[in-house]
Write a structure and sequence with these properties.
12 helices
């Protein structure tokens, strides 16, 4: 005999599929009579709400699936810290997974979460929109963080990468830096693409006549170090570096100082994100309030599960310039 489906339960109870879902998830907006009919129908048919479940559960798992590009590094640890704080406050636990740069791995991670969690938080700036849409379980509520494209009814939270890049370039130009080199993030990553394009636009706006110069990176410290070596070995002038994230900026900063360069006397350095380590290294950056974004994503998801989400479908969060010692005003020869 084939397993009963939620549609079978709806037909037997003579209610809609949505009513079955609300009743079995313990939501308040279901009449007691309807809930009883649904439960009776589900028990009669032997219906279980999740694949692999062994008995009918009328309450939520109170678990949230979190799928990130990586689980290492200060950015992701800060994001998870904010998520965990809000989830704990509201009686939920987090189940974490990662998907690196592989669309198929992303799909596997999302499929694995199905049946174990009440909803998903997905950060996927590196997955093509069509692939991400295919991978997202249709019946599982989800909030997207920095995802590329428009996902219709699914709430999303995004950083305004263009505004952040403009703030950094404007700050550098106002402090008398002109020959600004950008260390970009990985190809195919929407954050990296927007920050690079934001840099180009900001250079045209604030330093007209200066040709933009971009060196490829991958958001890791090592590529910041490699970019610094490229800059030092080149005959092209450079008096400031704007890296697409703080870890590349810190790698660049370390390599420049190891080579005997004064920062900012010889070359200024700025990043993007404001990870905790940036404060201790006096790194100029733009603050995206990583932990707060994580907490906000959890709040949106739980409100969505409760039928109380009233936020805009797409939230845009504007980064805030944090000027520190690595971009102090430029004076000739560091005088």
């Amino acid at each position: 005999m084939a397993e009963a489906t939620i549609r079978d339960v709806a037909r037997r109870a003579e209610v809609s599929v949505a009513s079955v879902s609300r009743a079995l998830n313990g939501l308040d907006n279901v009449r007691a009579e309807t809930r009883e009919r649904v439960i009776a129908a589900a028990n009669a048919l032997g219906y279980v709400p999740h694949a692999g479940a062994r008995s009918l559960s009328l309450s939520r798992a109170h678990a949230i699936g979190v799928v990130l590009p990586d689980l290492h590094g200060e950015f992701f640890s800060e994001c998870v810290r904010g998520m965990d704080r809000e989830a704990s406050r509201r009686g939920y636990v987090l189940l974490l997974s990662n998907m690196h740069d592989d669309s198929e791995q992303a799909a596997n991670a999302l499929r694995t979460m199905h049946g174990r969690v009440d909803g998903l938080l997905v950060m996927a700036p590196h997955i093509p929109p069509a692939a991400l849409e295919r991978a997202l379980p249709r019946t599982l509520p989800a909030v997207l963080i920095n995802a590329p494209g428009d996902f219709g009814t699914r709430p999303s939270l995004r950083f305004d990468n263009f505004a952040g890049a403009d703030a950094i370039v404007r700050h550098l130009v106002e402090n008398s830096y002109r020959r600004i080199v950008h260390i970009a993030g990985p190809e195919g990553n929407v954050d990296a693409q927007e920050r690079a394009e934001g840099y180009r636009r900001a250079m045209a706006r604030h330093a007209p006549g200066i040709e933009p110069r971009i060196i490829g990176g991958d958001f890791n410290e090592e590529t910041g170090t490699a970019a610094a070596r490229t800059i030092l070995a080149s005959a092209e002038p450079c008096d400031a570096v704007f890296a697409a994230n703080d870890m590349m900026a810190l790698g660049c900063l370390h390599a420049l100082r190891a080579a005997g360069k004064q920062v900012p006397g010889d070359i200024a350095v700025a990043g993007f994100d404001d990870v905790p380590l940036a404060r201790y290294m006096a790194l100029t950056t733009v603050r995206v309030r990583i932990a707060e974004i994580g907490a906000r994503a959890v709040a949106r998801l739980i409100d969505l599960l409760d039928g109380r989400d009233t936020g805009e479908p797409s939230e845009i969060h504007v980064p805030e310039l944090v000027a520190r010692a690595t971009t102090a005003p430029h004076t000739p020869n560091g005088a």
